[in-house]
Amino acid sequence: MITRPLAITALALGALAAGSAMAQDKPMADKTAAMEKCYGVSMAGKNDCAAGPGTTCAGTSKVDYQGNAWKNVPAGTCVTIKTPKGTGSLTPIKS
């Protein structure tokens, strides 16, 4: 007799968890789609990837505002980001 209410409760909790997970998938995809690579704006060790020769990937830039290291930023904002070395760039900056 106890197994029936327990099974119903387990099914209800499973459905709620699945619905919650599905509801969170779409906003994350939209957020990712609205990003762009911005070169020359990351601080040392804070880049998202592509930090040039001698580095492997994320978090490997050696200096602040390294021109060949990029950071994901909201689409349309890169070239408006001001740094001591100028503004952000959508392409790698030659140092």
Q: Return the average pLDDT rounded to an integer.
A: 79
Number of distinct beta strands: 4
Largest sheet strand order: 1-2
* Radius of gyration, CA atoms, in whole angstroms: 22 Å
Summarize the helix and strand pattern as letters: HEEEE
Determine the structural class based on helices, strands and strand pairing.
Answer: alpha+beta
Which residue ranges are poorly predicted, with pLDDT under 50 across at least 5 consecutive positions? none
Apparent shape: elongated
From the N-terminal CA to the C-terminal CA, the straight-line distance is: 74 Å
Strand content: 5-15%
What count of helical segments does DSSP give?
1
For the largest beta-sheet, the strand count, sense and barrel status come to:
2 strands, antiparallel
Q: Helical content, roughly?
A: 25-40%
Number of domains: 2
Give structural attributes.
single chain; 95 residues; alpha+beta; 2 domains; two-stranded antiparallel sheet; 1 helix; 4 strands
Write a structural description.
The protein is α+β, with helices and mostly antiparallel strands. It has 2 domains: 1-33; 35-95, no CATH class. Helix content is 33%, strand content 15%. It has 1 helix and 4 strands, in the order αββββ. The strands form 2 sheets. Strands 1-2 form a two-stranded antiparallel sheet. A two-stranded antiparallel ribbon has the order 3-4. It is elongated. The model has no long low-confidence stretch (mean pLDDT 79).
